[in-house]
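Hi! If you just cloned this repository, the fastest way to understand the data is to look at a raw example. We've pasted two of them here, unedited. The first protein comes first, obviously.
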Amino acid sequence: MEEKNQPEKKFSTGAISATVWKNVRTDKEGKAYETRTVSLQRRYTDKTGQWQSTNSMRLNDLPKAALVIEEAYRYLVLNGHDEPKPQEVSTNKFVGTSCKPEVIV
């Protein structure tokens, strides 16, 4: 039986929220590994007063959406979830190298 995705953390401001989901996947060799995804939603009440949710944002929602997405990103990076799993690491020798311009005096 496959494990259901679990919400790990939720960031909200007003009606806008970003949820970090923990997902368990299986690689080609059958080994389980975890990944994280982020969903964005806006809550509102419909004409009958029932709460609904959507992933469509209005213009005024965008600053709050940016805030909760940034918090989700910060959470993931600070908790070490920004690293690719070993088989996803590129063999390109330039990946991860600095792109700072060299100053010659």
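Ok, and the second one:
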Amino acid sequence: MPAYEIYFLCNDCQGEHPIHIGIHLENGPGRKENLAEFQRGRSMPPQVMALRGHKALCLKTGRTIKLENDDQIFLVPSPASNLPPRQAPMIHDEE
């Protein structure tokens, strides 16, 4: 199941910051997308709805910000979820 990292657009410094929470979504976006774009025409998964109201830290100002605006919360595909699956090396029995 694809993994997503969560970022937010900060009102204080206008930068994007990670909130260090990852979620897994069966039918998530294939590219970076904010929650407003993601929810169009679909019901919102509970793990995504739980992001609303979460507190996040601005890395520049040190202020805590409550995540309330779906336009400012982003789902970002995790780079690790784009890697091919690992395969165990073949072990040959020696006789």
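That's it. A detail worth noticing about the second one: The first helix runs from residue 35 to 39.
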